[in-house]
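Workshop exercise sheet. Pairs work together: one partner reads the sequence aloud, the other fills in the structure field after running the prediction. Swap roles for the next sheet.
Pair: D.N. / O.F.
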Amino acid sequence: MKKIVPVVMAGGSGTRLWPLSRKQYPKQFLALTSPETMFQETLARLDRAAEAGLFEVTAPLVVCNEEHRFIVAEQLRKQQRHAAAIILE
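Structure field:
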């Protein structure tokens, strides 16, 4: 089975969904269509693909702005997850 190391890009300027989305809290960290944020939904899709036997998934590498590192860490914690690394841009 193929092993996937997911890289989740979680950056942005927060201008496209203004006024909901802001520079300090861009859209991927908002719960727009479900109780989970778009960032959390992305991680859940990886789990579903692994459960379906499509591939084995390792802990993700998350790339985000330095201003969002605590939001990323908190949203990972809420899903009882950890990242292989949080890479700051």
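Discussion prompt: The CA atoms of residues 17 and 27 lie 7 Å apart. What would you look at next?
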